[in-house]
Amino acid sequence: MRRPAWLGILAASLIPFVLTLGNSMMVPVVPVMQSTFGVTPTAASLLITAYSVIAVVLMPVAGFLSDRMSRRRLAIAALAVAAAGGGVAALGASAAHSYAWVLLGRIVQGVGAAFSMPLALPLASDLADPHGRGRAAGFTEVGNTVGKLMSPILGALLATWAFFAPFWAVFALCGTLSATIAWMVPERRAPVPRSHLPAAWRLAFRAHAKLLTATYLSGAVSMLCLFGGLVSLSESLADSAHVPEWQNGLLLSIPQAMLCLASLVTGLFSDRWKAPSRAAIALGLAWTAASFGAASASQDMAWQIAAVSLGAYGIGTAITAIDASLATALSHEVRGTLSSLYTSARFLGPTLGPPLASWLQGFGARTPYAVLSAIALAAAIAIAPLLRRSTQDGESAAREQRQAAHT
């Protein structure tokens, strides 16, 4: 029985949701693992670091393979590997009581995540019709942001029941999603013949080199500002005598909620914007720069929370517009590889943002916001002409392709 396309798009959008949950839920577990297994803080933090490093390294490989084989089958297998990694970590923590097994499970989970996370955007784009690809891409970003919003709360709740419960949650969620994709996502396209790939690559780089440069740069800067801003706000809340500790998590969820709202709004309207959706990338970064600049103007906690939340809205607008631009511009033959490189660039944000913000805190509580504001503004200024010219290049390449088809 043929399933509606929107069911497949929904299943593809759940990939970043589940994998974001599977990683961020581990944050509350790190100190518990340190005390339970008697490991150093550095060793305990490898639960997060090992997963992220493996994901960054292997994501381009996953994108490369997804342009040469079935994306549906690759996603099913990769999520099954991620589920197996969660199961190994859960058994290592609960039955074997071995931190080495826990870490091994997280590494296996990272491999599965690396081969499935980059598939969400191209898979959803393949399933959507040409006029609905921007909206489909927006839904994948909504899944990502909702995962970021829910993961600290869900991770803390599971960890209070049992410190190894988040690992079992990864096993259940990834395994269920693998089966869901097998059921909901149809096999839409045959793999591209290898003889066609060189021409597709030449056309993609000639038509979209400026767009790719702008989106990779803006994606990395957006995530750098997001995680840097959240870490700065978290440290300010921890140092504030007027904010009870139990409220910190709730207050930090406000920027995440604004990020999610921006992704939803931008995704719903991106198909109507077409070329202006590329302008939304630069405008989102400029909005973030202004908001973080406002955050640096006062040490009042309410003011900083509001300013960082508005900055998160700008980031949500920018990254969802990036997804929509890539989904509509890139052809099926190269969509997997080029979008996976963008996903890897985004992972630089959570890798570099927190240590940068923590270091800048030593120069004053407002310094990180000022520096992040300057970075966002510089990126907005740098990408604006690239995005404008990328629209012109894309139109020229489309005309050439139509002329070649008629000759």
UniProtKB/TrEMBL annotation:
Q: Which domain of life is it from?
A: Bacteria
Spell out the subcellular localization from the entry.
Answer: Cell membrane
User: Does Zinc appear among the keywords?
Assistant: no
The record's Gene Ontology cellular component field reads: plasma membrane
**Residues passing through the membrane, by range:** 44-65, 74-93, 211-230, 250-270, 303-326, 369-387
Is this entry keyworded Transmembrane? yes
Q: Which UniProt keywords apply?
A: Cell membrane, Membrane, Transmembrane, Transmembrane helix, Transport
Entry membrane topology: Multi-pass membrane protein
Q: Which GO terms describe its molecular function?
A: transmembrane transporter activity
Q: Which SUPFAM superfamilies does this chain map to?
A: MFS general substrate transporter (SSF103473)
Q: Which residue numbers delimit the Major facilitator superfamily (MFS) profile domain?
A: 8-391
Specify the protein name. Major facilitator superfamily MFS_1
Q: Which organism is it from?
A: Alicyclobacillus acidocaldarius subsp. acidocaldarius (strain ATCC 27009 / DSM 446 / BCRC 14685 / JCM 5260 / KCTC 1825 / NBRC 15652 / NCIMB 11725 / NRRL B-14509 / 104-IA) (Bacillus acidocaldarius)
